[in-house]
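Entry 14. Ran structure prediction on the chain below.
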Amino acid sequence: MGGFECSSHRRPSGRRVDVIDATRHDHFAVADYARLCAAGLLTARDGLRWPLIERLPGTYDFASAVLQLEGSRAAGIEVIWDLLHYGVPDHIDVFAPEFPAHFAAFAAACTSFLMSRHTGPGPLWLCPVNEISFFAWGGGEVAYLPPFVRTEGDQLKRALVRAAIAGMDAVWAVAPDARFIHAEPLIEVSVHPERPHEEHDAREAQDSQFEALDMLSGRVSPELGGHPRYLDVIGVNYYPYNQWHHHPDQQQHAVLPPTSPLYRPLREMLAEVAARYDRPILIAETGSEDETRAPWFEMVAREALAAREAGVPVHGVCLYPVVNHPGWDDDRHCHNGLWDYPDAVGNRAVYEPLAHALSEARLQEAHTSATGVVPDRLTPVRW
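Output, structure tokens:
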């Protein structure tokens, strides 16, 4: 799979990030999707930018998404559409009691728009709220993301869970067979060998990664309306900085590199998620920067295949992002994609080592598959 970074939030400075516009994916979406297809990446993650679609309360204009949808259809790419990837319109208050209803109305409008042009054989795929856990931490604990507050992460997480649930119900009212992915960070927080007394705190930080999914499923905080039906496919987002030693000051925790003897194999982490939720799994985001892109993807692909061979229902790995983009904070040129910025007519230079790693991963999959057949689509979840 290939994912197009689609964040559209405001920075603390007030400037709004719009990665789809910055990478010109909206302008060259037809070429981008054709390129994806030619590379054998037949499923994608992409996003609908709420701040552009609902500039005025209750008025929805999908002109910003037309080329993305047309490009994916022309190339025959199956898309998982993000509805809320951090970006919220300026007139929306995520802490307001009516926030879930606002999001539900937006989700219903998005579904009607997508279904009016949906011609594929499979269902509509959506990610209601990307990374509820990170959104709640960034926006409610460290004031990095909107709404830029501190010590209110739990309140924000609960608001986002309520919105996701309301949004899913609204989607099902329009498209009863719609499928959902919840993409959450997959982390490993270990106690530092020199501070064993922090073991309890490290375990609490480790377990926090499951809280949003537990809320959605009704396992915890049932007053939010959660139920097992709201968990369909579990998406895990995994990057080189997702394992670290706990530290009381979050700014000082030490990231563990994959070469560390204390680094936990990804296959074990995937097995833990599968055992906890009994749901299909996607690695919904993974990638690295510069010359580490290829070896990182090779490692993730190898671990995903090993997990699947061990019986873990891993159905895909999404290279994210698939095109380079400007940094959220400083607009630096992040070399983390398979392709670079486009030229004047939409051509993008390819990063050959990563292209080779993708090809090798496919060969490895074909070689290690027990049946020799890779499922085309995920089968529906049964409760």
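Residues 153-174 form the longest helix (22 residues). Will compare against last week's run tomorrow.
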